[in-house]
Amino acid sequence: MKKVEELILELSKRYDGDKGSLYFTTPFELLVAVMLSAQCTDARVNIVTKSLFKVANTPEQFAKMKVEDIEKLISSISFYKNKSKHIKECSIQIIENFGGKVPETMEELTTLSGIGRKSANVIMLEAFNNCQGIAVDTHALRLSNRLGLSNETDPLKVEQDLLKKIPKKYWKLVNHLLVYHGREICDARKPKCDKCTVYKYCKYVKNK
Ligand code: SF4
Q1: SS3 189
Q2: Domains and CATH numbers, the chain
Q3: Residue whose CA lies nearest to ligand 1 atom number 8
Q4: Which of 42, 110, 114, 154 is deepest in the core (most CB within 10 A)?
Q5: pLDDT-based confidence at residue 2 (cuts at 50, 70, 90)
Q6: What atom of ligand 1 comes closest to residue 198's alpha carbon?
Q7: Distance of alpha carbon 51 from alpha carbon 33, whole angstroms
């Protein structure tokens, strides 16, 4: 078995790679949660969306709201002012361009305000179970570098390296595993290498 497959299987013994960690019940709720999660923890987002979605959880409802009212509901989230604008703009775009439904292709999703390739990847995977790539957030980026899966620092280039090296059947798992391992063990400043089950694959410890 290839080293990269061994590494994935090792991580999947530790984490449930089938599930993401953002709470949602509809594709639109997920889209909002994904927007809020940029540079914010999923745990914080889940706390905020629990009450936010009781007030509004459809494009029609958000499109009618004032940006300032959305701001009040998500004020504990980082960059909440920008994110509030994006939620409103994106809701209007979904109504006007996609008949009120979250589009189901990467090309269409990335036309929406506040949705880049990373967010579109998460939406395609979690909402539509149609994995198109690997979302490279801060954890996936760090792990990819440390485990020698990519030497790049630009998330889009890191993703391209991952897609070349990792067989497609593992993409869904890898989307979750790198994030979970980054959060739990491979901290940016103080990685818990003594507790790491993929220690033997790590370039970072070998180069220390
Ligand atoms: S050995 Fe340490 S640095 Fe390497 S992946 Fe594991 S926790 Fe991260």
Answers
A1: coil
A2: 3-18+134-207 (1.10.1670.10), 27-126 (1.10.340.30)
A3: 186
A4: 114
A5: confident
A6: 6
A7: 12
